[in-house]
Description:
Elements: H1 3-13, E1 16-21, E2 27-31, E3 37-43, E4 46-52, H2 61-74, E5 82-85, E6 91-98, H3 104-136
Antiparallel strand pairs: 1-2, 2-3, 3-4, 4-6, 5-6
Amino acid sequence: MLATDVIHYLAGQLDLVGMNLSPEGEQEYQFARPFDFVLTEVDAATVALFAPLDMPDGIEREALLRRLLEANLQGVETGAGALCLDAFGRLGYRDVLHLGGMTLEAVQLRFVDFVLYYEFWRGQGLGSVAEELRQTGLPGEGFIKL
């Protein structure tokens, strides 16, 4: 599967609302459904998905980012993707798909995972981390306590 195949598929299924170049000069495709996200064509066989998250209020940025790094390192809370900052310093959830050998069904399943992990972080995940940091002022044990 190639990046163009994924782009054409998603553009046919979701709301493609714009295109532009990333600060690195890569082609970006902006979607508005099921939430705002950007698909970046890294190369002919690689795409990256990024969906921005709102930073919780009243939390020290450094402590929050340290805690989110723990989530990335353990992988349990982020799956194949990662919490990161984009080139503009916005917090978000990102997944990079190396498409060599992937079928359309594999891409669809990976996109579903992207959506589910993003929705978790947009809803319960960031709220739980923010509450954890408000109570202790320090990053927690590494797993979100539900």
